[in-house]
Structures are given as structure tokens and as C-alpha cells.
Write a structure and sequence with these properties.
Helix 6 (81-91) runs parallel beside helix 10 (233-245) and helix 8 (169-181) packs parallel to helix 9 (200-206). The protein has a six-stranded parallel sheet with strand order 3-2-1-7-8-9, with helices on both faces. It has a three-stranded antiparallel sheet with strand order 5-4-6, with helices on one face. With 253 residues, it is an alpha/beta fold. The protein folds into two domains: 1-31 and 79-119 and 167-253, Rossmann fold, CATH 3.40.50.1220; 33-76 and 123-160, 2-Layer Sandwich (SIR2/SIRT2 'Small Domain'). It has helices at residues 2-13, 25-28, 47-50, 53-58, 60-75, 81-91, 106-109, 169-181, 200-206, 233-245, and strands at 18-22, 95-100, 115-117, 120-127, 133-135, 156-160, 184-188, 210-214, 227-229. The protein is 36% helix and 17% strand. The structure holds nicotinamide-adenine-dinucleotide and zinc ion.
Length: 253
């Protein structure tokens, strides 16, 4: 591991525009299950029944119950060393943004400011019919599901991107811009099975960025990694925490 730490630190200190791209794996050690790993959420549920518009229209109460169950898990979870290390690198002026596929809000909870949530947030709802959108602070009342829109009375849904749905245009173009601008692109805890998100490491690579992949299992990005770290994210960042803390801040160019 010593060599890996040194190579990682060299790459971080030699970069001026670091961007992180995270998936469910970054939150796994905070106690939030991923979708595709063993013990992952999809082993027990069928994604197309729960995380799709068709599934929601068929059985909105069932979908809401699933999201409420996930909200409760997320509500009681805390950021781990991986989230905290990315926030630390941002404070040092080295990391410029995080593009996350996660909906759990843990990057923000860890203190990161520039977070692009390309798949939305479990802490937001929107109307399934009109343009109403809102933040939520509380888990919706389970005896009155589905919650309804204060403007038109129709069903509210989680403001997340479901299978088959397009991404928010503005968020996606911000993500592409950040990937293109980066000189170091860190891919953490994502298998690379979800598109178009999985294009981002290639976009970064094609615009000259170096790629670091941190994941204990094989991913779609292993072939393009300049540094491949076969480790759990929070374990890796716990081990390197002191060195990251002693990195000097980078002056804005
Ligand atoms: P995925 O389930 O397809 O892949 C998870 C990846 O994380 C795998 O490659 C796995 O090896 C890796 N992983 C597992 N434990 C890890 C650890 N401790 N450290 C580092 N890596 C670890 O997830 P995905 O690629 O993110 O795609 C699934 C979609 O569902 C995404 O949109 C994802 O964000 C969403 N999702 C979000 C959450 C959340 O918000 N926390 C949880 C589940 C799924
Ligand atoms: Zn409405």
C-alpha cells in the first residue's frame, strides 16, 4: 500500500483541477447499500418495479415505501473518510468539484460545496404532473402515501432520475464541462453500468485528464486508469488522511 499512497499523493500534488466522480460505493461504508454488489438493493428488489416511471404509476405507494425505507437508512448515516477527504481537498483548493450519482446528500453533509448531483436527491420531491419542486426535511408520513402536490393535488414523487429518464440538462452539461476541464479525474465506487454517467471518465480521459479508480471490485474503467486502487474508499482515505491534511493549499491560478 505504501507505493500506492505515494503515487496517489504525487498525482494529487501535481494537479491543478481535480474532479471526483462518485457512485454508491463511496457511501457503502456509511451503511448505505449499493445496488449491484452482493447484499445490494437490487438483490431483493426489481429495479424496473421501483425506480421507473412505469413502476411508480403502477404502484406509487410501494415505490414511496421503498424510498422512505431508504431515507431512514440515509438519515441516520454519517459521511465516512472518503466523503471527508474530498471535502478536505476542496478546502485546500485542489479539488474543484464532485460529480455524484448518489442521491444521499452525504458529500454535502461532509462539507463539500461544489457537488453536482446528476441523479437528483432523495431530500427533494417534485410533482409528477406540474412544475412544483421542493426540498424536504422530514420523511413523508407513511399513513398518507403518496404525498400530494400543494399546487395541483396530484402525486409527488422523489426528485431523482429513474431508469429510462433523461438527466437534467443543466447538471449534465456542468458535469461534462468539469470532466473536460479536469487534469485529474478520480473515480470512486462506481461500477460504470449506468449511462450516460459512465461516459464521464472517458470524456475526462479524452480531454487529457489522468484517471484514478478506487474500487475493491472490477469496474468498467479499469482499462483507462493511470492508477488503480483496489481498496474500499473509506479505508484508503483513512490511511492517507494525515498526508492529505499536510498538503499545502493551492493558490488559485
Ligand atoms: P453500483 O451499485 O453499480 O456500483 C457500486 C460500486 O461500488 C461497485 O463497483 C462496487 O465494487 C463499489 N464498492 C462497493 N463497496 C465499496 C467501497 N467500500 N469503496 C469503494 N467502492 C465500493 O453503483 P453505481 O455505479 O453508483 O450505480 C447505481 C445507481 O444507483 C447510481 O445512480 C447510484 O448512485 C444509485 N445508488 C445510490 C445510492 C446512494 O445514494 N448512496 C445507493 C445505491 C444506488
Ligand atoms: Zn402539481
Amino acid at each position: 500500500m505504501g507505493d500506492t499512497y505515494r503515487m496517489f499523493l504525487d498525482m494529487v500534488s501535481g494537479s491543478r483541477y481535480i474532479v471526483a466522480f462518485t457512485g454508491a460505493g463511496v457511501s457503502a461504508e456509511s451503511g448505505i447499500p449499493t445496488f449491484r454488489d452482493k447484499g445490494g438493493l437490487w438483490e431483493r428488489f426489481r429495479p424496473e418495479e421501483l425506480a421507473s416511471v412505469e413502476g411508480f404509476m403502477r404502484d406509487p405507494v410501494k415505490v414511496w415505501r421503498w424510498y422512505i425505507w431508504r431515507m431512514r437508512t440515509i438519515y441516520s448515516s454519517e459521511p465516512n473518510y472518503a466523503h471527508l477527504a474530498l471535502a478536505l481537498l476542496e478546502r485546500k483548493g485542489r479539488l474543484r468539484s464532485i460529480i455524484t450519482q448518489n442521491i444521499d446528500g452525504l458529500h454535502t453533509k461532509a462539507g463539500s460545496r461544489r457537488v453536482i448531483e446528476i441523479h437528483g436527491s432523495i431530500w427533494r420531491v417534485r410533482c409528477a404532473r406540474c412544475a412544483y419542486r421542493s426540498e424536504i426535511k422530514e420523511v413523508p408520513n407513511e399513513s398518507e402515501l403518496p404525498p400530494t402536490c400543494p399546487e395541483c393535488g396530484y402525486m409527488l414523487r422523489p426528485d431523482v432520475v429513474w431508469f429510462g429518464e433523461p438527466l437534467d440538462n443543466m447538471k449534465w452539461s456542468m458535469a461534462v464541462k468539469e470532466a473536460t476541464r479536469s487534469d485529474l479525474f478520480m473515480v470512486i465506487g462506481t461500477s460504470g453500468a449506468v449511462y450516460p454517467a459512465a461516459e464521464l471518465p472517458y470524456i475526462a480521459r479524452n480531454s487529457g485528464s489522468r484517471i484514478i479508480v478506487i474500487d475493491p471490485n472490477p469496474t468498467a474503467f479499469d482499462d483507462i486508469a493511470d492508477l488503480r486502487i483496489w481498496s474500499r474508499a473509506s479505508e484508503f482515505f483513512r490511511g492517507i488522511w494525515r498526508d492529505l491534511e499536510s498538503l499545502p493549499p493551492l493558490d488559485p491560478a
